[in-house]
Amino acid sequence: MRVPSLPVFGIYQIPFQTDAPGITVSVESGLATSTYRRTSPEGALAKRLGYREGRVIINPVEPINLPTEVTGMLEFHFMPVTMRPNSRITICLKFPVEIGVFVGADDNYTLLDVFSLARPKYSLYGTPEKGVITRHVECEVYEDAPPTNPLEEGVLFLTLRNSGRDWIEVTRAVFESSALRLFYDKTVAMAGEMEVFSRMVAETKVIDRPPEEGMKQALRVYPTKKSLIPERPPFMMEYGVGD
User: pLDDT (tens digit, 9 = 90+) per residue, 125-146?
Assistant: First the structure.
């Protein structure tokens, strides 16, 4: 068994057990099969696996899977950030983390379980007729990465760029789930960009590289569930960047 860089997160060989406050994940071997067990604040889960040896990967995943697949959009709502025309700034925002359990090897893996210590909240970005439901994250704005519990929270390093000629006040950023890329080591993090064209229009995208050196990229839930759907280009926010 490889020692995880964070409690629970890591690559394990069956059989194993790993624990953190409020969480226990284990796989017990039998004669021909094995049993997966997980306890968390959400409750307990048990599954029978049709093999007794193999690899289990536990890592942070996109926070848009629970309680069900309600939405593929993640919305940050934060303290107003006022920007000069043609200016650029990087801020840090916290986001909720979900924990994914995968079985398999290399690129051939499947999702076994998803659970979380964070309770999901949802909102509507846009109009009732044409808007989109989002996983809603109310968060503070930080100049540097704040301390977090990596089993519950991650940090988004968000670069805001005002490409317009007017002063802009930004209070929200919306991302599409297919674009999310999580990395982890001692913390969980991702990096994103938001280019603001006006008070009503902006474009967001997540950067496919770790925000800090030495971080590992997490396996994603998105490819295992929607592999036949092509990933989309950067998301265009057309219902405003402020309240």
Answer: 988 888 888 989 999 999 999 9
Strand partners of residue 12: 56
Sign of CA dihedral 148, 117, 181, 53: positive
Specify the DSSP element, H or E, that contains 170: strand 168-176
User: How many CB atoms within 10 Å of residue 200?
Assistant: 12
H/E segment holding residue 49: strand 43-49
**pLDDT digits 0-9 by tens, 166-204:** 999 999 999 987 778 999 988 999 999 999 999 999 999
H/E run at residue 46:
strand 43-49
pTM for the full predicted model: 0.87
Q: Identify the three-state secondary structure at position 178.
A: helix
Rounded Cα distance between 240 and 243, Å, is 8
Cα–Cα distance between 174 and 232 in angstroms, integer?
A: 14
Task: Collect all residues with Cβ–Cβ distance below 8 Å to 149 and sequence separation of at least 6.
Answer: 117
Distance CA 159, CA 233 (A): 18
User: CA nearest 121: which of 177, 190, 64?
Assistant: 64
